[in-house]
Amino acid sequence: MRRARVVARVAVMLMLAASAVMAEHHPVDQEHTSHDDQIGATCLDFGDACKIGFGTLGHDRNLERGRESSRDRSSDGLSPPGGSEFRDIVFSEGESFPRIEGDVIFRIGFNNVYEAEQPRAETLDEFVEMIASPEFRLTEDLSIRSEFRLETTAPPEEDRRFQDEGLFVRSLYARYALTDRFAVHAGKFTPSYAIASLVTPGMYGNNYNKEIELIERVGFGAEYTFGSAASGRHTLSASTFFEDTSILSESLGSNRGRTTLDDGGASNTESFESFTVSLEGTDLPHAPGFTYKLGFVYEAAGRGDEADEYGIAIAAMQSWQLGDESSFVVIGEVAPLWNFQGTADTIIYSSAGVALQAGRWTGVVSGT
Questions:
Q1: Which of 159, 194, 344, 363 could form a disulfide with 124 if both were Cys (CB 3.0 to 4.6 A apart)?
Q2: pLDDT value of position 360
Q3: How far out from the chain centre does Cα 96 lie?
Q4: Looking at residue 207, what is its pLDDT?
Q5: Which helix (H) or strand (E) holds 197?
Q6: 99 to 24, 33, 93, 102, 223: CA distances (angstroms)
Q7: What local confidence, expressed as pLDDT, does residue 206 receive?
Q8: Which of the pair, 119 or 252, is modelled with greater confidence?
Q9: Residue 46 to residues 12, 85, 89, 295, Cα–Cα distance (Å)
Q10: What is the SS3 assignment for 356?
């Protein structure tokens, strides 16, 4: 019987704060309206991390809080669970284009593996992580979305202090909304499939299930949102893709190397043979706080692989508001995959987590 590996992890969050408008707000003159630019910045309400939003607006624009960001986000333990969410600065009387807006999130962490089957795996690792998500809003309907990451590019082989850090492009794609309900996108992105790697709470809640996240794929797709007040809001998504083998698969600093066709692996084909289809629903009138997601993925075999990979994902999340500043969240997902990563292996990822948030404090238990 194998000895269980015990991992102790401690992480320290850097809390960055900024909430200033860097231009003087003048009263609006009916005969002459000034359109000098202002830059706004906002911070996460309960202080565990900070989001900085950039935008331009004329002096006759009013600012208000209250709209929640609808952009796709990968938490990686940096996003708050449950009732604590990022807030955007909103332009309430018409938005100006083009403009830039987005998020910047930092984290300093410390990992200590103090008991392992192989002693060489017992290491101390200090690291810094950054996620920057600038969005270039060209028009109301057309935008260029991106995500840049700074993180370690390889696991530690010995004690390490802020080494092997690399900056890379995780996503860079164009999105165009043809209507309020239908949008298309193309470029380098994460196809919609599973959800646990995005929402499992805790600093390390997603470390084990992120292997099934379809990151850094190149392709195109579409999403259609439908529903009503009586049926809730549902989004059907589909995309076709292949693994990124361009120069964007490399990294600055500690170079993780460029992906090539000879590396093999599921969807590493440089052709549009792989695809995903997913359905996600929320705002259900008969189930307040409930969110579900169903996904299917097919990834064509790469060079040297034994077979094509395919799998399904079934996920659900339920949140309850316990008061003005308290919430309780339960998350669960099951994702069986056949011929995982082009091998003959069949795996089943099961993830679950609970989070209790009370004011500025959050308690989390999660596992995969």
A1: 159
A2: 85
A3: 26
A4: 66
A5: helix 196-199
A6: 19, 19, 16, 10, 24
A7: 63
A8: 252
A9: 16, 9, 16, 33
A10: strand
Q: Is 232 left (phi over 0), alpha (psi -120 to 50) or beta?
A: left
Q: pLDDT, tens digit, for every residue of 307-366?
A: 999 999 999 999 999 988 899 999 999 999 999 999 999 999 998 889 898 988 888 888
Contacts of 314-319 spanning 24+ positions with Cβ under 8 A: 315/194, 315/195, 315/196, 316/290, 316/291, 316/292, 317/195, 317/199, 317/290, 317/291, 317/292, 318/287, 318/289, 318/290, 318/291, 319/82, 319/83, 319/289
Distance CA 300, CA 44 (A): 41
Look at residues 127, 147, 126, 124 and name the one whose alpha carbon lies nearest to residue 135: 147
Cα angle vertex 194, ends 190, 195, to 5°? 95
> Could you tell me the pTM of the whole model?
0.74
- Which element (helix H / strand E) includes 196? helix 196-199
Select from 217, 219, 314, 312 the least CA-distant residue to 266: 217
Give the span between the Cα atoms of 68 and 44, in whole angstroms. 12
> CB-based burial of residue 344 (10 Å sphere; 0-12 exposed, 13-18 middle, 19+ buried)?
exposed
**Is 170:335 a contact under the CB 8 Å cutoff?**
no
Contact (Cβ atoms closer than 8 angstroms) between residue 176 and residue 183: yes
pLDDT by residue (tens digit) across 13-32? 333 333 333 333 333 333 33
How far does Cα 6 stand from its chain's mean position?
A: 28
DSSP-assigned letters across all residues of 214-282? --SEEEEEEEEEEEETTTEEEEEEEEEEEE--SGGGS-EES------GGG--TT-SSSS-EEEEEEEEE
Cα–Cα dist 29/132, whole Å:
37
- Which of the listed ranges 31-40, 92-101, 211-220 does the model predict with the highest average pLDDT? 211-220
Write the CB contacts of 308 (distance below 8 Å, at least 6 apart in sequence).
266, 298, 299, 300, 301, 339, 342
C-alpha separations of 21 from 18, 24, 25, 53 in Å: 9, 8, 9, 11
Task: Provide the 8-state DSSP code for 1.
Answer: -
Beta pairing partners, 30:
none
